[in-house]
Amino acid sequence: MLAALQKLWKKVFKPPEELITFPELFEHFQALLQDHQKVMEIIADLGEKSGGDYVFDRKYLQDSVNELHVLLLHLIKGLNLISSNRYPDLYTTLDRIFLPIEAELRGRLSLAAEMPYVVGLEDLPVDHPELTGGKAANLGEISQRLHLPVPPGFIITTRAFRYFLEQNQLEDRIHALISAWLGREADTLQTSRQLQYGLLAGVVPQEVGREIRRRTEAAPFWAVRSSAHGEDGELSFAGLHESLLQVPARGVPEAYKKILASLFSPEALSYRRQMDMLGEEAAMAVLCQEVIASRASGVVHTLNLEAPETECLTVYAYPGLGRPVMDGRAQPDRLVVERQAPHHIRSREVFPKEYVVRPAPGGGEEEVTPAPEERDLPAISDATAQTLARLAISLERYFKRPQEIEWALDQTGQVWILQSRALAFSQISDFPPVEVADLRERYSLLLQDQGVVAHAGVGAGPVWVVESDADLEQFPEGAVLVTRYTAPWLARVVPKAAAIIAERGSPAGHLATIAREFRVPTLVGVEKATGVLTPGTEVTVDTNNRLVYAGRVQELLHYELLEATSFEDASEFRQLRRLLKRVAPLHLIDPQAPDFTPEGCLSVHDVIRFVHEKAVQELMDLPRFLKRFKGAQLWTLVSEVPMGLKIWDLGGGIDPAAQGGEVTAAQIRSLPLKTLWEGVCAPGVWSTEPIQVDFSGLMSSLTRTTEAATAAGFNLAVITGTYLNLHLRLGYHFNLVDARMDPDPHHNHIYFRFVGGVTDLTRRSRRARLLADILAKYHFKVDIKGDLVIAKILHLPQEEIRRRLLVLGHLIGFTRQLDMQLKSDEDVPAYLAKFLERLQPLVDLEGS
Amino acid sequence: MAQNKLRVLILDDEPIVCKRLKPSLEKLGFEVDTFTRSFEAMQAVEKAAYDIIVTDLKMEGMDGMRFLQEAKKLYPETEVIVITGFATMETAKESFKKGVFDFIAKPFNLNEIQKVVQRAADKIRSAGQ
Fold first, then answer.
1. Which of A188, A254, A675, B17 is deepest in the core (most CB within 10 A)?
2. Which residues of chain B neighbour A543 with C-beta distances below 8 Å?
3. Is 70 exceeded by the pLDDT of residue A701?
């Protein structure tokens, strides 16, 4: 009884929350910053390794993941120590993120519950062929990465297949039947029949059926095709599984079952046994696409198999639907077209068309005999053949292998890509490996041993130097992009480039990431490239040996295309790319957003962002801070700009000789603070004149004071030698700058957040837009929400960070008065021009 | 250079390492054989001499350290380059004691290993003159 009372007493009168002492806090915070840094380095390192220049194995992936896991546990523990255990949920978040990563590494089909049963082609998760099958995965990449026209549709995933087996209790039965067959207890035909019967008699699970019906409402007829795991990948199951064309919408669920059953056709079973694949789980995804009522259709081989050395491709074309050609019953027209733009037609063979298949009015297909005068007409025009050649070569450039492409031409003349897979050919000739020493004798070298590999490979084309937006507009398909910068605005031409050479940038930078996504061979940090490479001249870029040859090195291009294995398709690289997706993207941008929570963290990057932000917030928490900083040395900055800035130096940020409580700008050692302050104090930036306030602005400011004013007047910079976290309340604006300026660009970032302000919402939004425009000019990634502006930039060299911090210094002074003066939207461009003009002489930023 | 190609043996139980190394060394003019199992590599070494051996250390069955010792016993002039994901000072020291030409930590970039193999080749050629 007494004990119970005591317990109750303790519960009601909790002792006051204990704050950890300053030295402890300091230590945790420092450790936290260091761990944060290490995590960023590992993320950058993983990104770099995905570019193909490194040889790594599964152990490396395992080690990196383990290291990340340990660091994140540290970070979360650190934050909880600083915050008196306010974020226990982060441990759950960590499990949520790491469990799938670890399952992935163990090599299990990661068909976790988060994977969908049915998914649209446009949302298809790429690099998950185990979910969607090889065929659909290829189409997903073609439509999402290359933006080529692919008929709309959806995929019923391998997860739906498993669910189907489970619901119909088929798993054990299949296992038993196959074991018996392997043990020669049953013959192939009988086994196949029993397996197929089981699948065809099954019921499509409700959730799956509902989703199929919903999606098939979009069109009356559908093509339903197999997309088995492994098919169109390293092994070709060509023709072994079923494909059903012209299926009416309501017939799709039945067609689905037929395709599933084809997984166990006698031919497919034998093939699997031959390929020693029966030990693995067979899994079938099914691809459903709207039928293109085609005027003509056919196939492109990007290599003329009869004469591979001729630099030509072959287009096969036949009028109507593709069935006669697929079945091999009709002789299609054959055009031999040059692989290189402008794709001249070398030869043309047109055969008489005995019959044509077209969509029947009531569904299905019908065969018709063409009119005599149409019999001998070519199936497609030369212009269409050239369009096909262009699309085919861009597909080959992406997949790095000769391709076999199925296409259709619709009634309006638009070309659609139905499928693209590696072209199967027997070894054409005995290609000797191309030796660098021989090539050097035959071709002159323009560049050698320069730069760093961002994405490995070989590419050739005419040099196209990009200096301006206009150069981007005209960028030709298949050119070699040569640029001084690695700015994000280059992204849109990357998919068209045969290779990229940039004078600046790092393999962890933005351009490198995009180049990897589009598999474009890329060298960065090649000094003076724009000086050496003349626009319009043909060059061959070999990143494997960091060489740039004058001219097209045909033997090397041939070797790469036909012989070399493309690392992009190795399972380790796929695994790394999938891993990166759970690690690298940053989704949590705005700390004020409702999803800025442990639950909102989707990636490793999100978690460290969250921890970092909350740790800083914890330090900024005023009442707690005031208690804490008794032990801390807090400096006051003495400056002609009267901001009342307090500085908390966590190490190396202030001249060690500084005495007393005050420092001058000259005594600041922290690079980012020093630079920013230089911007703020530049002549003319900090207006000392009273700010003009027009009447409506003033009235609005009077009614808005309460929330903003309570915390006003507390300006604090937390610094180290290379780090700055600055909270500024100026008037009614609130600025936050978080920046690092390290010799190693990978460590660097600027994060800028701006909110609040006198005057009405319209004006504030106007100002937000102006800020966003200015920041975008300096290649910040900018997000606006109402009057909140969030800008960030990553991984730039110290000098580039310096330039941008100067700009931010200017901006901080500039915005202090800005929205009072911005009276209409028309004013925005004028102010922008004025600001940039004022900045130009001071911050000479090329490429803006 | 084409008259007498140097022969290189690569042994690593991770197929991807062999797959990526082979073409990058062939381009430099070497004749390259790859193995993912040490006993098969051993059989090959017993049949004919290799000028350069590139081997991982930690593998199933006979590990890399034993393999390189056996190979060196047969052909002391073979140059051995060790690649390993478990790079510590101890393993590095031990490899050098066993007469290893160089030691590379995984992951490594292709250029790095090309240079080391080229250096080993230069040494062999100058010794042969």
1. B17
2. none
3. no
A728 compared with A213, residue with greater pLDDT: A213
Residue contact A58–B19, C-beta within 8 A: no
On the CB side of A716, CA atoms within 13 Å amount to 18
What is the reported pLDDT for A801?
A: 93
Residue from B22, B25, B110, B118 to probe the interface with A (highest A Cβ count within 10 Å): B110
Mean pLDDT of chain A: 81
Q: Judging by DSSP bridges, how do beta strands B7-11 and B108-109 pair with one another?
A: unpaired
- Interface pTM, i.e. ipTM: 0.84
Q: Which fold has domain B7-122?
A: Rossmann fold (3.40.50)
- The answer, for B3 touching chain A at a CB cutoff of 8 Å, is no
Residue pLDDT, tens place only, B78-116: 999 999 887 677 777 888 888 889 989 888 988 899 999
CA distance A637 to A655: 13
Give all domains of chain A, ordered by start, each with its CATH number.
Answer: 19-87+572-621 (no CATH), 118-290 (3.30.1490.20), 294-359+375-410 (3.30.470.20), 444-552 (3.50.30.10), 633-839 (no CATH)
- Out of B27, B85, B108, the one facing A59 most closely (by C-beta) is B85
CB contact under 8 A, B106 and A59: yes
Substitution target in B111, B115, B116, B117 with the highest count of A β-carbons within 10 Å is: B111
For residues A300 and A379, give the distance between their C-alpha atoms in angstroms, rounded to a whole number: 14
CB contact under 8 A, B107 and A49: yes
Cα-based angle A637, A643, A645 (whole degrees, multiple of 5): 40
Chain B nearest-CA distance from A455, in A, is: 12
Residues 6+ apart with CB under 8 A from A105: A58, A61, A62, A65, A575, A579
The separation between the first and the last C-alpha atoms of chain B, rounded to the nearest angstrom, is 14
pLDDT tens digits for range A783-792: 777 677 888 8
**Contact call for B27 and A435, based on CB within 8 A:** yes
The Cα–Cα gap between B108 and B114 comes to 10
Q: Domain spans of chain B?
A: 7-122
**Residue A759 phi, psi dihedral angles, 5° rounding:** 75, 170
Q: List the Cα angle A285/A291/A297 in 5-degree steps.
A: 105
Q: How close does chain A come to B45, measured CA to CA in Å?
A: 23
Average pLDDT over residues A558-565: 76
Q: Is the Cβ pair A572, B21 closer than 8 Å?
A: no
Distance CA A512, CA A520 (A): 9
Strands A458-466 and A480-483: parallel
- Contact flag A56-B106 (C-beta cutoff 8 Å): yes
Token pair 């409702």 is found at A594
Q: Which DSSP letter does residue A231 get?
A: B
| Beta-carbon contacts of residue A457 (< 8 Å; ≥ 6 apart) | A52, A400, A499, A519, A520, A521, A543, A544, A560, A566
Q: Which uninterrupted H or E stretch holds A658?
A: none
Q: Which of A42, A48, A50, A55 to mutate to test the interface with B (most CBs of B within 10 A)?
A: A55
DSSP letters for B61-92: SS-HHHHHHHHHHH-TT-EEEEEESS--HHHH
**Pairwise CB contact (< 8 Å): A436 & B28:** yes
**Radius of gyration over every alpha carbon of chain B, rounded to an integer in angstroms:** 13
